Amino acid sequence: MDKYTVQVESGRAGSKNGEPNVGPVYRNALARDGFPPPDPNMTTSWQVFSTAAEKYPGNRMLGWREFTNGKAGPYKWKTYNEIYEEVLRVGSALQYLGAKPGSRIGIYGANCPQWIVAMQACNGYSLICVPLYEYTRSGAVDYIIDHAEIDFVFVQDKKVNRILSSDCTSAKRLKSLISFTSMAKEEKDAATNLGMKAYTWIEFLDMGKEFPSEPLPPQSLDICTIMYTSGTSGHPKGVILTHENHATYVQGLDLYMEQFEEKMTVDDVYLSFLPLAHILDRILKAVSELLPHRRMIFNMLYKYKLSWMQSGYEQKKASPLADLLAFRKVKARLGGRLRLIVSGGAPLSNDIEEFLRVTSCALFVQGYGLTETCGLSSVGFPDDMSLIGTVGVASTFSEIRLEEVPEMGYDPLATPSRGEICVRGKTLFSGYHRNPELTAESIRDGWFHTGDIGEMSPDGVLKIIDRKKNIFKLSQGEYVAAEYLEKVYSFAPIIEDIWVYGDSYRSMLVAVVAPHEDNTKKWAAMNGYKGSFADLCALEQLKQCILQELKAISDKNKLRGFEQIRGVVVDPQPFDTERDLVTPTMKKKRAQLLKYYQADIEKLYKNLAEGRK
User: Fold this and answer.
1) Which of 219, 279, 360, 601 is the one with CA 20 to 30 A from 119?
2) At a CB cut-off of 8 Å and minimum separation 6, what does 326 contact?
3) Hey, how many other C-beta atoms are within 10 angstroms of the C-beta on 308?
4) Taking every annotated instance into account, which residue ranges of this chain make up the domain AMP-dependent synthetase/ligase (predicted)?
5) Same domain (yes/no): 165, 306
């Protein structure tokens, strides 16, 4: 594994003054002798974009699909040069309206070309981009506008009314509102009544054309963005990232990609979306549509290709015959051109990762990072099956170590080495906006304490196993690691998602389960039950089936008695952002989950207590 990573410092035991034990420091093999020197021509986000526009003016940069009567049309594209010209117009218009270097510019909406243009205009004119999450509730948007002191905001057309609503009290501080597309007269009038000027996208581009101005390029240590994390509780935190952070990350990614025999080309297209479930739905559907004898052949070919991959063969060379006979249909389901899948949200189960590596006919990489690390702080390698279940090794410009968490029994000097994941390096954030206390708490001695619990192999391969905050004590004094149990129990085929709950006033664990719809319907058909999915989820028999599967999982993984789930609440609807139960990256908001299911949880505990009498 030394071709991937290198140990640069040994671990050490804590002092008698109560300092925690810390594990060895690991660095990417690309940084064996220190971090690679920065590219002098690529030290800011603006240089990254403007250099690309200068070198590849005619290449396609941004693509989108227009919808007619709900049906998506073909992709339309704009070149680097076309986008660059739009960026100059938008930047010029902002400057004409009074935006100064350091002014905060909000961007609120889904991914689209206008989003990128607005962001690059901020980069080119030394303005600070403040994204407003598409999924963020209006209350959080109101908070961010005020906390970040935003002056101008770009908004997706269908979200204009959220900014103009009475709930968004901070809108009165905005000077201008710019729609990604058009804007109704009533919306413009409402904006005027709030004291701001409102513009359509075309109007804003025309203003920039009429009043052009040269870019005001930033310096490397200038603030590029204040990225508010959605968070699992409390107000969002404003993560300060510099232009150096962004440019360094891009350089690191370039160096990482150069190691692969299979190179990315100008014909490749990058698609960014959440969650991965959309891909999985397409693949499981593809398999389920096979006739029984074909499904048997599919499984045989799966095991055959997997065995060759496990022996060291690259996925595209492991079994071309299996790809031709079975997996080309999976590839077709994913568009036919898919060459690389990168997963960086919630950790995937080993089974899902293995399945994607074998059947997608594409390279697969899983990584780990946070907003505070400006993207990946560790990353895996394709075609290395030994990395399944891990998030790889330290990324190019990062260093990683584990720190002891005594209250959870995690010690990086024990075997296995476990503890809180700490990161330092060139892509690390500067601090939290207007929150020096939290900054000092999170960054100590140059190390960012992530709050995630990892397990580190002796050769520096990292596995995510828990979350520091996701631990609680049961009434008998036993500590429970909820996230770990959720990962284990999610292997049950009947389960789509699960939230494990317990507290210090009870001795038993319970859970809220969102069943897997297709597998639930198969169970119902086999057992003679009929009705809608919601009807099936209300059956007591389904609850008993789920509990039996959870018990089997518990026995298989040798979980302790207090870690077993004693009762379940069944919800046909998966945990979602619309109900504010998960973050946009699908992390569970445990406080919100408890609030939402409180009545069901209390009723369940009451029934369990009565059943014990």
Assistant:
1) 279
2) 297, 298, 301, 302, 359
3) 16
4) 50-433
5) no
Residue 445 lies in a domain: no
> Which CATH number covers residue 519?
3.30.300.30
Report the amino acid identity of residue 3. Answer: K
Q: Give the integer Cα–Cα distance in Å for 224 and 96.
A: 21
Is the pLDDT assigned to residue 487 strictly greater than 90? no
Q: Residue 356 belongs to what H/E stretch?
A: helix 350-359
Rounded CA gap, 599 and 580, in Å?
17
Q: For residue 194, which of 167, 212, 214, 174 has the smallest C-alpha distance? A: 174
Average pLDDT value for residue range 210-234:
89
Q: Where are the alpha helices (DSSP H) in 6-137?
A: 45-55, 80-96, 113-124
Both tokens assigned to 435: 């929150």
In a domain, 486, yes or no: yes
Q: What are phi and psi for residue 604, nearest 5 degrees?
A: -65, -45
Shared domain check, 307 and 211: no
Q: Smallest Cα–Cα separation from 255: which of 390, 397, 384, 423?
A: 397
Q: Indicate left, alpha or beta for 562 from its phi (over 0: left) and psi (-120 to 50: alpha).
A: alpha
Whichever domain contains 183, its CATH number is 3.40.50.12780
Q: What is the largest CA-CA distance in the chain?
A: 81
pLDDT digits (tens, 9 = 90+) for 101-149: 999 999 999 889 999 999 999 999 999 999 997 555 557 899 999 999 9
| Mean pLDDT, residues 412-422 taken together | 96
Tens digits of residue pLDDT in 422-438: 999 999 999 999 999 99
Is the separation of the CB atoms in 19 and 238 below 8 Å? no
- Model-level pTM? 0.84
462-467 and 375-379 beta bridge pairing? unpaired
DSSP-derived pairing of the beta strands 223-229 and 237-242: antiparallel
Res 231: pLDDT:
60
**Rounded-to-integer distance, Cα 413 and Cα 97, Å:** 58
Kindly state whether residues 301 and 384 are assigned to the same domain. Answer: yes
